[in-house]
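User: Sequence recovery, please. Input:
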């Protein structure tokens, strides 16, 4: 389709991108900081080429945000921009696949109305950037299949390399693209130097992280094994059901049609390699019983392809009413489920709203997730009060104890909360046994006087000779084993701190 203005097809997608960004920013401070955000902020203050449970990109990009402050508005700007960028990419993909103005607008609208997209782009996490980079890499791959220019291959290698430093999803997508090329006539591309150039660029960007893993004994392998054990034991239909419902149930036919579109010959340039890659991606994660949102990164591509099919099938005069019939339920469901994606309601009202939908315990990703409200909301409330509780214990110590007292969290959220809120409360930097906190070591602390924070099952009397429970803190909207934090004052470690540190490691 031809337009008088070359970029006219982007007008509505740009508007939708601005709407998403505005909604994310307006609600950025409504509940509080999420548990994982506390950890990523701590990682950003310990820049490295790797961390126990994730590659380095999230730490480096969060460090960029911290240059402008540590408020939630500042921290959440870049994830929100990743969301807006994904909306634009969906429009560009639909255009590259041969869609017209409606396809571009509809593709971007589906991202805007996808409930769990709001969750992923609404706080600091790897997932926001993971979706963006997978979508961007797919767009570049589409252009490569259509044009095949050398500079696109290099740019594709750069994006894949950055994506590999974001999350392992990109590794699965890259493997899927390789399989897709091998199984289709597009294998002819392997007779050129360009795929190998792209692979070399991606590997060069990822190599520092590989080297970090080697130096540290591959801690991520241990993390993945332990993480798999704590994930919900859910069937493949159950995972797909969670995915369909949390994204927006009425988007399901769109992205399924999009997959058929990519695997078919209806597109002028065959996109089967990309369709096969996405099938491979789904098979890998479904076989591993992963969390449902691990399946989301390639969904924007499928939604864009589905929009192209809808555009083509309804282009004829007299069939355009189908477009309206498709848009109305998608937008209606998006509005109705908005409180599940964005913190637009007071938390008490949200609890009532969730009960109205009968969704208590239905949006769980781990065995220990809360059942009253989704963990991605429940774990945002109470960390500031928790830090003040820790500060009250610390300030009650005599001066002679405070000068040598350290604060040890058994979970990275506890340590991260002390580090995030601690400067304004007069607290020292925390140490921790969990994830990368353990790698950062016990600092200069001798362990003679320690405030130790623990939740759930576990004992600390095997680590210290004197253990005194000072107080507890209960999170108001968490109902799992992490609800109650027990705050102890401990003295005299049974072993010297460096030796004790080897026994307290926790990568699960």
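Assistant: Recovered sequence (508 residues):
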């Amino acid at each position: 389709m031809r337009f008088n203005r070359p970029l006219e097809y982007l007008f509505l997608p740009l508007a939708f991108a601005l709407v998403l960004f505005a909604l994310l920013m307006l609600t950025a401070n409504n509940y509080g900081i999420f548990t994982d955000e506390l950890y990523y902020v701590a990682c950003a203050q310990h820049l490295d080429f790797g961390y126990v449970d994730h590659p380095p990109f999230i730490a480096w990009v969060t460090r960029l945000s911290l240059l402008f402050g540590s408020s939630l508005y500042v921290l959440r700007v870049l994830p929100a921009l990743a969301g807006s960028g994904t909306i634009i990419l969906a429009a560009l993909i639909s255009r590259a696949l041969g869609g017209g103005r409606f396809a571009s607008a509809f593709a971007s609208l589906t991202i805007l109305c996808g409930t769990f997209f709001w969750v992923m782009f609404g706080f600091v996490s790897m997932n926001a950037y993971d979706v963006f980079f997978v979508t961007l890499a797919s767009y570049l791959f589409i252009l490569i299949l259509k044009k095949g220019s050398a500079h696109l291959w290099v740019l594709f290698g750069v994006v894949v390399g950055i994506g590999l430093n974001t999350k392992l999803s990109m590794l699965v997508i890259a493997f899927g693209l390789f399989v897709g090329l091998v199984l289709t006539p597009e294998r002819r591309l392997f007779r050129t130097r360009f795929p190998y150039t792209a692979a070399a660029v991606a590997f060069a960007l990822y190599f520092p992280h590989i080297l970090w893993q080697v130096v540290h004994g591959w801690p991520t392998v241990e993390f993945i094994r332990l993480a798999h054990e704590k994930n919900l034991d859910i069937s493949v239909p159950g995972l797909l059901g969670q995915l369909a419902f949390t994204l927006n149930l009425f988007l399901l036919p769109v992205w399924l049609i999009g997959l058929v579109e990519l695997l078919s010959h209806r597109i002028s340039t065959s996109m089967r390699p990309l369709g096969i890659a996405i099938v491979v991606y789904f098979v890998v994660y479904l076989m591993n019983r992963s969390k449902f949102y691990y399946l989301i990164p390639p969904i924007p591509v499928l939604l864009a392809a589905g929009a192209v099919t809808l555009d083509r099938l309804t282009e004829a005069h007299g069939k355009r009413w189908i477009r309206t019939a498709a848009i109305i339920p998608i937008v209606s469901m998006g509005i109705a489920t908005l409180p599940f994606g964005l913190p637009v309601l007071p938390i008490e009202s949200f609890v009532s709203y969730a009960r109205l939908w009968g969704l208590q315990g239905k949006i769980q990703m781990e065995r220990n997730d809360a059942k009253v409200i989704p963990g991605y909301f429940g774990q945002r409330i109470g960390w500031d009060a928790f830090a003040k509780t820790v500060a009250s214990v610390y300030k009650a110590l005599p001066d002679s104890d405070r000068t040598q007292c350290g604060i040890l969290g058994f979970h990275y959220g506890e340590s991260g909360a002390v580090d995030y809120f601690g400067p304004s409360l007069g607290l020292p930097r925390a140490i921790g046994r969990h994830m990368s906190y353990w790698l950062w070591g016990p600092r200069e602390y001798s362990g003679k006087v320690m405030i130790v924070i623990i939740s759930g099952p576990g004992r600390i009397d095997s680590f210290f000779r004197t253990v005194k429970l000072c107080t507890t803190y209960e999170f108001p909207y968490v109902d799992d084993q992490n609800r109650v934090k027990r705050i102890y004052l401990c003295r005299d470690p049974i072993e010297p701190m460096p030796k004790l540190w080897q026994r307290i490691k926790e990568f699960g």
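The chain has two domains: 8-125+215-341, 383-501.
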